[in-house]
Automatic annotation (TrEMBL):
Pfam family, one: Cytochrom_C_2
InterPro entries: Cyt_c/b562 (IPR010980), Cyt_c_II (IPR002321), Cyt_c_prime (IPR012127), Cyt_c_prime_subgr (IPR015984)
Keyword Membrane: no
PROSITE patterns per record: CYTCII
Lineage: Bacteria, Pseudomonadati, Pseudomonadota, Alphaproteobacteria, Hyphomicrobiales
Transmembrane segments: none
Superkingdom, taxonomy of origin: Bacteria
Signal sequence, renumbered to the chain: 1-22
Keyword tags: Electron transport, Heme, Iron, Metal-binding, Signal, Transport
UniProt organism field: Rhizobium viscosum
Protein name: Cytochrome c556
Length: 147
């Protein structure tokens, strides 16, 4: 059995399951989606740092997860869901257009990298810098840091 095919199937199943589970706009759904993006970024980071070998299928799966999840993420912040979430700033609901634009940029940037798939760890690292900048900028504005 081809382990790369199995890994890709598991990653895509995770995307589908996560998308199905994360449609209710709850704190848990939001956290689940952020964990999907974080896990994908972690996989890219391991390749960029050389702790995991370059694997085009793993890079594709991670970028697909980021693009898909970032696109759906703002839908989890519907009006009336702003209470009870200790990590999401009320600024999200006050600046929803900016929040959505930032998520769309992350998704679009991930799709662009996917279309021009990096061929090695250095390329993955360069892509990760761009994607990480998107994540960091949004977190700086819209995430409440825990003590």
């Amino acid at each position: 059995m081809n382990w790369k095919a199995v890994a890709a199937a598991v990653a895509f199943a995770g995307i589908a399951l996560g998308s199905a589970m994360a449609v209710d706009g709850t704190h848990d759904a939001r956290i689940g989606m952020m964990k999907q993006i974080g896990g994908a970024a972690g996989a890219l980071s391991a390749i960029a740092k050389g702790t995991k070998p370059y694997d085009a299928d793993a890079v594709k799966a991670a970028l697909t997860t980021i693009a898909t999840t970032a696109k759906a993420f703002p839908d989890q912040f519907k009006p009336g869901t702003e209470t009870g979430d200790e990590e999401a700033s009320p600024k999200i609901w006050e600046n929803m257009d900016d929040f959505k634009a930032r998520a769309a940029k992350l998704s679009t940037d991930a799709e662009t990298v996917l279309a021009q798939l990096p061929a090695d760890a250095a390329g993955v690292g360069a892509a990760l810098n761009t994607l990480g900048g998107n994540c960091g900028g949004c977190h700086q504005l819209y995430r409440i840091k825990k003590d």
